[in-house]
Write a structure and sequence with these properties.
Layout (H helix, E strand, L loop, with lengths): L2 H134 L9 H10 L1
Helix pairs in contact: 1-2
Length: about 160
Amino acid sequence: MNLNLTILGQAISFAIFVWFCMRFVWPPIIDALAKRETRIADGLAAAEKAHRDLEEAESRASGMLQEGREKAQEFVAQAQRRGDDLIEEAKVQAREEAARIVAAARAQVEQERNAAREELRSQVAVLAVRGAEQILMREVDAKVHSEALGKLAAQL
């Protein structure tokens, strides 16, 4: 057998095998690889998009948390202001009540002082009449001299 003829036969067989593979085997493999490549690329793109969405969601959640904290601080500040206002109102009402009580007490003291003056005037008038009786050694008629006693009481 001739070595050249064997090599030629093997080369032709190999060429036919390569042609067959290129024609019938290679295209489905290439299509499968292309599909797989696109699926992998789509999966990577979806993963990248999911990662971006996650970052956006985290930033929104962070923003919402910050907004919630700010609102909570605002509510606390409003409650503090309202509490301060209530305390101030209570102080004002207490001052007004104290002023009213002091005014009432002053009026009562003035009234009692006037009553005590009137009592003292009447007692002084009685003492003056008794003193006059002692001096004159006789009894003074109260009906006759009531006008004089009233004037005396008014002067005291």
